[in-house]
């Protein structure tokens, strides 16, 4: 449904922790101007875990309004309660999002059958296109390829963001699901390989900082231009690594604030990037030609 570089956009905040609405509009314009192919609002990188329900819905609505149909908006609407995920996904649809991104239920560690029933229930309740999101390193819950294959039969489940951390996992999903389900990388470091293997793009942290470069790399890979994709990915490699030098979104929010696009505020329990890491992130930004 979507192709290319989809930014997992940070949520700008004022010093008191409230959402910076003008900063958010500025970020949307920045991504439109720099070729980002879609925006994911209020995902993990957008600090969804620390926004309450009303704020969550407000940020999705604000992002859609700021986008003005110039760029697709995907609303992060996952939760570890099926009822809450349905409510948030309905909010994404009502806000005008083009699709919803649903993380696997975290902490409560459902079985594979529980995962199937969870996503089936959300898809049945809300007709918006839905993207599954598997990131076991954060959720302590790994949705297996056979479960994703079952879910691919549901018409409004259109894609999966796979952040298992290996190239083998998305390849198996591609083999199982074929054209029934788009596969997106959830790890910037292996996005090029996943796209060249048949994936349709990447939901990216690095695109917050180097949107044009990330877009160009994804397009080169989609076009099968191996040499260009590899060269652009090499330019991004240090950034991919530096933006996880501490728990994301700590480094990426610091980097975007260094670019003058917003302030550096995070909500607790996230804390500011440790001073010893500033130069590492700064040098990675220089290599990506953004600082």
From TrEMBL:
The keyword Amino-acid biosynthesis applies. GO terms for cellular component: cytosol. It catalyses: L-aspartate 4-semialdehyde + pyruvate = (2S,4S)-4-hydroxy-2,3,4,5-tetrahydrodipicolinate + H2O + H(+). The record marks 44, 107 as: Part of a proton relay during catalysis. It is found in: Cytoplasm. Its EC number is 4.3.3.7. One of its GO terms (biological process) is lysine biosynthetic process via diaminopimelate. The keyword Lyase applies. Pathway: Amino-acid biosynthesis; L-lysine biosynthesis via DAP pathway; (S)-tetrahydrodipicolinate from L-aspartate: step 3/4. Keywords: Amino-acid biosynthesis, Cytoplasm, Diaminopimelate biosynthesis, Lyase, Lysine biosynthesis, Schiff base. SUPFAM superfamilies: Aldolase (SSF51569). Pyruvate binds at residues 45, 203. The active site is at 133 (proton donor/acceptor), 161 (schiff-base intermediate with substrate). InterPro entries: Aldolase_TIM, DapA, DapA-like, Schiff_base-form_aldolases_AS, Schiff_base-form_aldolases_CS. It comes from the Bacteria. Belongs to the DapA family. Catalyzes the condensation of (S)-aspartate-beta-semialdehyde [(S)-ASA] and pyruvate to 4-hydroxy-tetrahydrodipicolinate (HTPA). This is 4-hydroxy-tetrahydrodipicolinate synthase. It comes from Aquisalimonas asiatica.
């Amino acid at each position: 449904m979507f192709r290319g570089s989809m930014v997992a956009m940070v949520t700008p905040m004022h010093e008191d922790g409230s959402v910076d609405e003008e900063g958010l509009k500025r970020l949307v314009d920045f991504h439109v101007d720099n070729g980002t192919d879609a925006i994911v609002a209020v995902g993990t990188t957008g600090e969804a875990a620390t926004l309450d329900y009303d704020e969550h819905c407000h940020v999705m609505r604000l992002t859609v309004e700021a986008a003005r149909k110039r760029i697709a908006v995907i609303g992060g609407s996952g939760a570890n309660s099926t009822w809450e995920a349905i409510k948030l996904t309905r909010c994404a649809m009502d806000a005008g999002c083009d699709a919803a991104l649903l993380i696997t239920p975290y902490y409560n560690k459902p079985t594979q059958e529980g995962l199937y029933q969870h996503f089936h229930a959300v898809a049945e309740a809300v007709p918006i296109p839905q993207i599954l999101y598997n990131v076991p390193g954060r959720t302590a819950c790994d949705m297996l390829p056979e479960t994703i294959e079952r879910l691919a039969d549901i018409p409004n489940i259109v894609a999966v963001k796979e952040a298992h951390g290996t190239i083998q996992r998305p390849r198996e999903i591609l083999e199982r699901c074929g054209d029934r389900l788009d596969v997106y990388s959830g790890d910037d470091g292996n996005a090029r390989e996943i796209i060249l293997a048949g994936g349709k793009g990447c939901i990216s942290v690095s695109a917050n900082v180097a949107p044009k470069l990330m877009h160009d790399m994804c397009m080169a890979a989609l076009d099968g231009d191996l040499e260009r994709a590899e060269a652009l990915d090499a330019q991004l490699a240090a950034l991919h690594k530096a933006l996880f030098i501490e728990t994301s979104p700590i480094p990426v929010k610091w980097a975007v604030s260094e670019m003058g696009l917003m302030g550096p505020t995070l909500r607790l329990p996230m804390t500011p990037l440790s001073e010893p890491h500033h130069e590492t992130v700064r040098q990675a930004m220089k290599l990506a030609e953004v600082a």
